[in-house]
Amino acid sequence: MLSSTPRRRTATALAGLVLAAVSAASLVSCSDSDNDGSSSSASAAVTASFSGSAPSALASVKESVKASVSALASSASAQASAWLASVSAETERANRAAKNALEDVDGKGNATADVSLTGKPRSETAGLLAVVVNITNSTDETTSYAVQVDFRDPDGKVVQTRYVGAEDLKPGAKAQPLAISTEAKEQQLTAVVAKAQRY
After folding, report:
1. Could you read off the pLDDT of 5-41 as tens digits, one per residue?
2. 179/117 Cα distance (integer angstroms)
3. pLDDT (0 to 100) of residue 17
4. What is the DSSP letter of 35?
5. How far are the Cα atoms of 83, 127, 129, 181 from residue 122, in angstroms, in the given order?
6. Model pTM score
7. Do 87 and 95 touch, CB atoms closer than 8 A?
8. What is the CA radius of gyration of the chain?
């Protein structure tokens, strides 16, 4: 009598395990055959958590962003080059003449009162720092002007120098050449009139 009880308990336990396995199989079968898609999406979410496809997709997005940034940088550089190329050869010749005229000038020159600077929006200069050099002939004779513009960093150090000029400017007439810095756009530079000479 005592020996039959453990056997009955073992049989009952085995029967319970079999019943549980069958029930689980039935539930999985019902879930898979359900047409509402909820089981499929849950399964997909779990699978995505453990598959190698997600990191691969992330790497692809990262490379795509890098490519976009590189393309934008190249485009900005091309725009800046094109804008600089639009400066005429005649303007370049006048700028060289201005540089030559200032070579032997001591101090700030004799025409700083006739010259002022006005900033030009970077949206119009492909992002480059450019200033309009306003030259007004305050004398009663036709004369030429040579101007040296220094671009300085926040410490006051001259980072770049540009020369501009206006030739044969009549009394009271104005000229507005551009002084353009080709330094990195990120630099915080200030333009100042270093020299201005009538000649």
Report:
1. 545 554 455 445 444 444 444 444 444 444 454 444 4
2. 9
3. 47
4. S
5. 11, 4, 6, 11
6. 0.57
7. no
8. 39
Find residue 184's DSSP bridge partners: none
Q: Return the closest-CA partner of residue 162 out of 186, 131, 135, 197.
A: 131
Mean pLDDT of 101-108: 94
Write down the residue that tokens 């270093």 correspond to: 194
Q: For the chain, what's the residue count?
A: 199
Rounded-to-integer distance, Cα 196 and Cα 49, Å: 70
d(CA 47, CA 153): 56
C-alpha 135/C-alpha 144 separation (Å) is: 10
Distance separating alpha carbons of residues 152 and 143, to the nearest angstrom? 29
Considering only CA atoms, which of 125, 116, 135 is closest in space to residue 181?
A: 125
Element (H, E) at 92: helix 89-102
Burial class (CB in 10 A: 0-12, 13-18, 19+), 84: middle
